[in-house]
Every structure is written in C-alpha cells, then in structure tokens.
Write a structure and sequence with these properties.
The structure holds two protein chains of two kinds. Chain A is of the alpha/beta class. Helix content of chain A is about 45%, strand content about 15%. Chain A is built from 15 helices and 15 strands. Chain B is mainly α. Chain B has one domain: ABC transporter involved in vitamin B12 uptake, BtuC, CATH 1.10.3470. Chain B starts with a helix and ends in a 13-residue tail after the last helix. Classes of the chains: A alpha/beta, B mainly alpha. The interface between A and B is large, with 43 and 46 residues.
C-alpha cells in the first residue's frame, strides 16, 4: 500500500486537534522565563469551587512576585518559573497535585492551600519528600501548632492570632454576651474555641454556638436561635460565600439593628460581593491595601492593578506575593536550594520593607514557623469614598508579636531530620 | 420552645417554597424527556448573573421577567444542540452530559463574570422585616413565596387546561402513543425543556437577592430539589410540590434541635420514604424504568 493511498483520516485530525486543545487546558499555567534551567515553584490552590476568588488572588500575587524577581536576576542567577495547579477544594486532588509538582515537575518549593484541610494534607507530602513548603492561606492552628513540621512555614495568621486581635476590643465596645455562628470544620472550630477562651478570660459568657455546615445557603434557622438568646454581639466566623449569605440575611432580617454584628477574619473579596447595606461590623483584615505614607505600597497597588484590570490587591494577593518572595530572598541569601538549609534559615527571617508592605516588624518565628504579621482591625464601610474598593476603615494595626500566643502555648515541637 | 418551633415551621415553609420552584423545573424535564438535568443549578446561576447584568438598565422588576426568559432561550439552544441527540438512548447518557455541562457552566460564568461574588441589591420596599417579632418574614421572602405560588398556579393551569399542557401530560405517561397520534414530540419536548429552564432562571433571580451571587451558587440548591422530587414521587408535579415543602419544614424543625443535622434530615426523610413507599408520596409505580 502506497503512502498516498493511506491519507490521514479526518477523524484522526479531529481527534488530535481535540487532544491539543485539551492539553492546553490541562497543562499547568506556566510563566515562561529566560535561561536554561529555571527553578520551579509549585503552587496548589482551589482555583475552582467556593474559594476560587481568594485563590485566584493568591495566584495573582505569586505571579507578580515571580515577574519582579526574574527582572532582578532570579534566584541564584537562574530564572524562576511558577507552576499553578488547581486543588478544586478537594483534599485528594490537592495531595495528588502536590505529588505531581514534586515528582514530575521537580518543583523546589511548594506554596498552598487556601483550605486548611488541604494545606495540612499537603504538608504531609512535602515533609515526606523533604521540600520547603509555605502555607499561604490556610488558617487552622495545627499547621504551625501541634502538627507543625520542620519544612512548613505559614504566611497567613493562625485562628488564635485572629481571635486575639479583636476579642478585647469587642468586649469593651459591644459587650460581654457573645453568640457564635461557626463554620463546622477545622478552621471554624479552632477559631471559635480561641474566641470563647478569650471571652472567658475577659469575664464574658457565650450564649450559644451555632455550627453551620460549610456551604450553608440559608442561615435563618441559626439566626432565629441566635436572636432568641439575646446576646450583645453576634460573632460571625464563616468565610467566603457563607459569610456573604449570612450577612445578607442578617441585614434583611434587621438583626443588625438589635444586636451588634462582628467577627474575626473578614476579606475584601467578601465585602465586595455584598450589597452596600450589608457591609457592616467590626473585623480584622490580615492585610489592607490602603495605608498612610507608604510609597512602596502605592507602587505595589499600582502594579497589581495593571495586571488585574484595575482590581486592588487583597490580603490574599499579598499572601501569594510574600510566599514567593520569602523563598527567593532566603535562597539568594543562603546561596542554596537545599530544603533543610533554607528551612533553618527562614527561622527568624525578617521580611524587608519592600515585601512586608506594612508597619511593625514582620518575621517568621523560629519556634513554630509562623509569620508574625499584623492584624488590621477596623470597621466595614458601606461605600468607598476615595475609591470604590476602599471598603474597610483600619482603626489599628496590631503587630503579630502582640496577637500570637507564645511558642510554648502553640503545641508545636519541631522534629528536624537527622 | 413552642414559639421557636413555630418560627422554624414557618421559616421551613418559606425555604421549602423555594425548593419547589426549582424542583418543578427539574421534574418537568425528567417526566417528559427522561433527562436527569444535573445542569439545572447551572441554569439557575445563569439566570442570576443575567439579572445582575441587566438590572442597571431595566431595574429589578424588568430583570425578574427578562432574565428567566433569556435563560430559557439558552436552555432551548442547549436542548436543541446537545440533549436532543440523546433522547433515544439510555438516561445515563443525558445524565453524564448534563453533569459535564454543570461544570462547563460553572467555569463559564467564572470566566465571564469572575470568581468573586457580585453584590445584588433587592428593592428597598422588599428588604425589610414585616414585624419585629417575626423578623424572619421579610418582604422579599414573602415576595419569593408569592412568586412560587403564581408560577405553580400558572404551571398547573397550563398543564391542566391548555392543549399543549395536556399533550405534555399525555407524553409523560406514554410518549409513543402521543407521537403516533401525529403530535410533534420534538417541539413538545423543546417547549417543555424551556419551561423547566425558565423556572430555573426565575429561581436564580430570586436566589441572588438572598444569597451571594457567585458561580457555585446553584450547587447547594440542586440536591434538595432532587430530594423533593424523589420524596414527592417521580412523575407527579403535585408530589414535587409537597416534597419540596416537606423537606423545607423538616430541615427547619431539625435546625431547632440539631442544626448540624438540618441537611442530613432531608436524606433521612428520603431514605425512609424510599423504604416505606418506593414510588414516593404521590408517584406512580414504574415511572423510572
């Protein structure tokens, strides 16, 4: 049979075209970099599912850091490359993607995940593979507490730091009877426990704790119970779309006119998803884009806006940005990629002004690998006056050293490899 | 305690009414076309986003009408291009197709409107509780219930008294005979599908007023709707109506005693019904064979 008489089947062409198309979607996002052998950074975050908005901001921050670092000569003279994988907000997928990044893509450093449960599971993998890992956005205490690991650091606050940043203020300003609405998983449980402990120390009482499953649409049943208990403050601990649903319903029910509404962690992503009348309450932000007299910060905001179609950076953008920079700075200082040496060097590592983008000293604590980052305590604002995205009024910026419990109280004992 | 219980029964009825609206659309499509539409939550989200996009131009009331219609048109296109070729096959095919479609819609909305939720404001007249005591009965929630009642009434009138409706009901029972009598079954199915998707779109507009409008909004609302159908009985629209209200109340009452079980109770209810009366409350035997 001649070659000519065996033309390529139309179906084969179609199939290969489809395969190429699928490949483009399926392969991870790559920032191409100059040079022969780039250093790879693997990032796992829930780009789809309920945490997609915050995860995408973390990725945007990480991308910006990679661009900046490469423009300044990269790490150890080599360019860095960011590989982003979607954990789909699923523990199994997150673990599998982490393994793939380490085993197949040879990533030297891992970042992720927004979801505490996935972050903890990823830490098992990175510890087993002896790869340096920074948890960008999972808050549950265990990560830098009883489950801490020699190779794992964390940028965002612990739930206890969040609780400590606002508890006293809320008691003084709003009163001593608190009722909680708590998301029913690791993050919510530790956060509620921390708040309740603080309240007890301050002489207050808990009138009730409504455990709402993750993904609750209708909060009315919980709100009926909460109002019947007649507390001074209703503390909202859910995050993401749950927070949005809950606040929207509270305002429609007029409960904010009878009981003070407050909480710990609040995010710009949530406030922007709320109608103006539901942007209420006292909260803490983990980072805020608007601060007085900080020229470097203004530059950072402008750089992010250029890349996001005008959207300002959120705390999540800063988490991603800081995670990549921490690795690059410490690797350049130590002139090595060895995970053990880098992990040791990151203890007590202080972020320089151009990265920390906030007042107060910001550093990784040697004893539990937790970043001592500030809490921005303040009030939600219904409409931004100078900028439509300026939806939070910062009243005080509390240093991480003042919100974090002592290392001895975290339950962390680091086991270094022999 | 009695008061709390009473509050939650009322509250459960309101939530149940919303499930009914969504479940009726699902049920219509399932009954006539044997398509288990997993993308129903996706169409709900599309309805919400269209409403959000056109509200600045046509206002809330305009969006309330236009968005469901636009969603129905998208539904028609989907039915014509993707679902129709699968009618003759095992229901598993369309189930898999709509399952994939649900992901496509979720990512599509994320691509177009972004992952971050959008702020939806309801008209000020509706966004108030009616009384201090019954704070959970807001103008908006009553309005939602009213919309459900109107939609259900119109749907029943359509099915009971119009030629088209009678054909749809006849088709549900025996499509082959209906077809043999010279009725254009394709048109019938398209129209029926569009009505179902219209209800999904309407649910989306109404839900966006109460919940955060974001690409995954429909996911949590889809399962209760399926349960409503199974509890009420596959093939029976009045069954779906009762099923929706029943799970709403069951979930509301459970929330008083054990909030964590307020979702699980729906599944428990479904399991009990399936054990005691496999066809569902008002279902006919052998509908899903």
């Amino acid at each position: 049979m001649s070659v000519l008489s065996n033309p390529i089947d139309r179906r084969v062409i179609l199939k290969s075209a489809a395969a190429v198309g699928v490949l483009q979607v399926a392969s991870p996002f790559v920032i191409s970099a100059r040079g022969e052998t780039p250093i790879r950074i693997g990032m796992v975050d829930p780009l789809t599912g309920v945490y997609a908005a915050v995860a995408q901001n973390e990725v945007a921050g990480a991308k910006l850091a990679v661009e900046e670092i490469n423009a300044k000569g990269g790490v150890l003279g080599r360019p860095i490359e960011l590989l982003v994988e979607d954990s789909a907000n699923d523990v199994g997928t997150g673990v599998q993607k982490t393994r793939k990044l380490i085993e197949r893509d040879q990533a030297s450093f891992i970042i992720g995940d927004v979801n505490s449960g996935i972050a903890q599971a990823m830490a098992q993998v990175t510890a087993e593979k002896k790869v340096l890992h920074i948890v960008s956005g999972g808050h549950t205490d265990g990560i830098t507490g009883k489950d801490c690991k020699w190779n794992v650091y964390r940028v965002c606050n612990t739930t206890r730091m969040e609780a400590n940043s606002v508890s006293e203020l809320l008691v003084n300003k709003y009163g001593k009877k608190w009722h909680f609405i708590t998301p029913d998983y690791a993050f919510g449980h530790t956060l509620q426990q921390a708040c309740a402990d603080n309240l007890k120390k301050l002489g207050g009482t808990v009138t009730g704790n409504e455990l709402a499953p993750l993904g609750t649409n209708d909060f009315s049943a919980y709100l009926i119970k909460a109002r019947a208990a007649n507390p001074d403050v209703l503390i909202l601990l859910p995050q993401g779309s749950d927070m949005v649903n809950c606040l929207k319903q509270i305002v429609q029910f007029g409960i904010d006119k009878q009981i003070h509404i407050a909480g710990t962690q609040q995010e710009l992503e949530s406030l922007e998803a709320l109608p103006p009348e539901a942007r209420i309450g006292i909260w803490m932000f983990e980072w805020y884009w608007k601060q007085e007299n900080n020229a470097r910060l203004a530059q950072f905001v402008a750089d992010v806006r250029k890349r996001t179609g005008g959207k300002v950076p959120t705390a999540r953008t800063w988490f991603g940005y800081t995670s990549v920079y921490s690795f690059a700075l410490v690797a350049n200082r130590e002139k090595t990629l060895d995970a053990l040496k880098l992990a040791q060097a990151l203890g007590d590592f202080e972020l320089p002004d151009e990265v920390k983008l906030q007042p107060n000293k910001v550093y990784y604590r040697r004893g539990d690998h937790q970043l001592m980052t500030s809490a921005f305590v303040g009030q939600a604002v219904s409409k931004g006056e100078s900028d439509p995205e300026d939806l939070f009024r910062v009243d005080s910026i509390v240093a991480g050293d003042n919100t974090a419990p002592a290392v001895s109280e975290t339950g962390c004992t680091l086991q270094w490899p022999a | 305690m009695t008061q709390l219980l009473l509050f939650n029964v009322t509250n459960g009825l309101i939530i149940g009414a919303f499930y009914v609206l969504m479940a009726l659309g699902l049920s219509l499509i399932l009954n006539l076309s044997n398509v288990i539409n997993f993308a129903h939550g996706g169409f709900l989200v599309i309805g919400g986003y269209i409403a959000y996009t056109i509200t600045p131009y046509v206002g809330f009331w305009g969006a309330l009408l236009i968005a469901p219609l636009a969603t129905a048109v998208i539904g028609l296109i989907v039915e014509r291009l993707l679902i129709r070729p699968l009618y003759g096959r095992d229901p598993l095919y369309s189930l898999l197709l709509t399952f994939g479609l649900a992901f496509l819609i979720e990512d599509g909305t994320r691509f177009i409107w972004g992952a971050q939720g959008k702020p939806v404001t309801v008209p000020a007249v509706l966004a108030q509780p009616l009384s201090y005591e019954f704070f959970f009965i807001t103008g908006y929630r009553l309005f939602m219930v009213a919309m459900v009642i109107i939609s259900v009434t119109l749907l029943f009138v359509l099915l009971r008294y119009t030629r088209l409706g009678i054909r749809i009901r006849a088709g549900t029972l025996d499509l082959e005979t209906v077809s043999a009598m010279g009725i254009n079954v394709r048109m019938l199915r398209s129209f029926n599908f569009a009505v179902g998707i219209f209800l999904a779109g309407l649910s989306g507009v109404l839900a966006a007023g109460q919940l955060g409008l974001e690409p995954t909004m429909g996911t949590g609302l889809l399962m209760p709707s399926f349960i409503a159908i199974i509890v009420g009985g596959v093939g029976s629209l009045p069954g779906t109506l009762i099923g929706g209200l029943l799970i709403g109340v069951a979930s509301g009452v459970t929330a008083v005693f054990a909030p964590a079980a307020s979702e699980a109770i729906m599944y428990v209810l479904m399991a009990v019904i399936l054990l005691l009366r496999p066809r569902g409350l008002l279902g006919e035997e052998g509908m899903m064979t």
